[in-house]
Task: structure prediction
Amino acid sequence: MKRIVVAGAGGFIGGHLVKKLVKESHQVRAVDIKPLNEWYQVSEGAENLVLDLKLKDNCYQAANGYNEVFNLAADMGGMGFIEKNKAACMLSVLINTHLLMASRDCGIDRFFYASSACVYNATKQTDPANPGLRESDAYPALAEDGYGWEKLFSERMCRHFSEDFGITTRVARFHNVYGPYGTYNGGREKVPAAMCRKVIEAGITGNKEIVIWGDGLQTRSFMYIDDCIKGISDIMYSNIKEPLNLGSSEMVSINGLVDIVEEIAGYKLERKYDLDAPKGVRGRNSENTLIRKYLGWEPSIPLRTGMKKTFEWINQQLAEENKSKKTISRFNK
Result:
């Protein structure tokens, strides 16, 4: 049994990770800034703390008495959020900095940092037919403004705390994680969840249109949550010292993603393209040579398989919301 801190435990990935660690009978301290009733998942077998980890004292409180840290905490969301909240994204640097300091002083043995494909040089992401971003493509540095630069800086902090203080640090660069128990509305949702929600809402309202940000030709790869959780664990307990891609290499255009969701839903929609909306880089994909070399594995759950599970979960949430609204409306008459 390990004593493990999960920072960002109230978020999408953090909630899934805590659930796995508790199931494996580890002693888990789950920490997030959000009130407990706003966490995406709450595991009763964990010690659940509501703390703002941008504050140094709170990081010491979180790390004290434990021996491993998974840092998944960040103020972030989809492209619509990170393009309009660059300062907020940059302030997440305080979380990783203070957690590393607390880890050094509290005797933490292993430290995992969740980085992002947003660290990659933008000039290597101008073609929709992206051959895949290798780990070396982060330099020379030209990261996503705000969020990407914070991630790249925090990667370096992990490296230097390892070199100078002997903490074993591991870094994974996430490529678009999706699945059930994630954000699907409100402005922080990412593309897979947003597309599921839009298609489902079109079916509910009868408005057979869908608005797509950009021209739909942008390409991405999307990793299902189960692959992500396995990758986090495997990387954490590996001997891999450099940052490593953690993402699917199954690239798809945004139009192609909509095709998949429409197929799952069983109906087609008229597509409207908002060319002024945030759309990010032109093409991004995960190049997985290194993860296959080091781990003999790579994320491989097919996109359609994961999207079907995600669609069904979001469909259930929206159905429950609509049922609740109708009930409230009936009582208000």
Q: What stands out?
A: The domain at 3-178+225-246 is CATH 3.40.50.720 (Rossmann fold).
